[in-house]
């Protein structure tokens, strides 16, 4: 008997300890974790430097409220603005809250209401972010949806041309759709999206909640394409597992978020920020990020070598250490098979196995995971 609402199809794994790339369950089984808490534990579980920073903050103060000057908020905001080239930060507690803030800021600053997003996108589970999400299954039973959201097809610029109008506050998208199936936006398409949006007086919001914080080998995935977003949203990997989300936006939007216009009791919590400061100073480092790219290349190379002759294998997707293995059949059943062989992996969409190892994964761990994957996928 469980006392929890059954919103999750939970695995039969009860964690009692997790360190680095490994998670130990109550039954004594040790798993190699290529889920990283769904792109959250980007430095592995319980990294020592983050733990130390959190312990120090726990000995100072935990919560005061946003009526106070919180130095850690300024420190982490500086890290985020330096790394993104944007100017100002608002802190919340999660990805959905960050996207809510982005949508509110876009509406208020433009005086327009329509937000265009992409089919198969995922932006969260609150009313605005559920409406922004381009997947019907997320919305079933919760209608009517919040008005003024419209969906266009990724990599089809004509569908955006048909949708954008003088009431469009923003075009909002993931550079690589995470939950939707590791679907990449083409470079030319995304540049054209930005051009169209800006010519139209609409903002560009990039959801970096899954792709950000070094996951793809750059601080943020938009930087592979040289885009110039007005707002980006981040969460997940920002604080190594402590709840924190943020938007980072252009200074020109500052008037729309004046005192009293938006807020959050817990947003920018000092303990989460202590974790974020240490996490970001480790990840936003050129040699660390170069290593992420190298490890991603290695993982992709090995996967391609062992899978290329398999009929079940279609193609590899993603960038850096956000890796999708697209199959010719449904990916779901392979998760339990991987767990039987002590490897934790995810799906994305229906036909994609999603690998999100910690960004400091070792070559040995990569080889170990590839061996399990070939075992479960080989006919
Ligand atoms: C791209 C993207 N946006 C938003 C969210 C929602 O984040 P949260 O679950 O922290 O609200 C997620 C979560 O999976 C995500 O992947």
Question: What's a quick, concise take on this entry?
Answer:
This protein is α/β, with parallel strands linked by helices and 379 residues long. It has eleven helices and 17 strands. The strands form four sheets. The protein has a seven-stranded mixed beta sheet, with helices on both faces. It has a four-stranded mixed beta sheet with strand order 1-2-3-15.
Mind explaining what this structure looks like?
The chain contains 11 helices and 17 strands. The protein has 2 domains: 15-39 and 286-377, Alpha-Beta Complex (Aspartate Aminotransferase, domain 1), CATH 3.90.1150.10; 49-283, 3-Layer(aba) Sandwich (Aspartate Aminotransferase, domain 2), CATH 3.40.640.10. The strands form 4 sheets. It has a 7-stranded mixed sheet with strand order 4-12-11-10-7-5-6, with helices on both faces. A 4-stranded mixed sheet has the order 1-2-3-15. The mean pLDDT is 98. The longest helix has 22 residues, at 286-307. The chain is an alpha/beta fold. It starts with 14 loop residues before the first strand and ends with a helix. The chain has helices spanning 36-39, 48-58, 71-84, 95-110, 127-132, 157-163, 187-199, 270-283, 286-307, 333-340, 363-377, and strands at residues 15-19, 22-25, 30-33, 88-92, 114-118, 149-152, 168-173, 176-177, 183-184, 203-207, 231-234, 245-249, 313-319, 322-327, 343-344, 346-348, 352-355. Helix 2 packs antiparallel against helix 8 (270-283), helix 3 (71-84) runs parallel beside helix 8 (270-283) and helix 9 (286-307) packs parallel to helix 11 (363-377). It is globular. The chain binds pyridoxal-5'-phosphate (PLP). Pyridoxal-5'-phosphate binds at residues 94-96, 99, 122-124, 174, 178-179, 207, 209-210, 235.
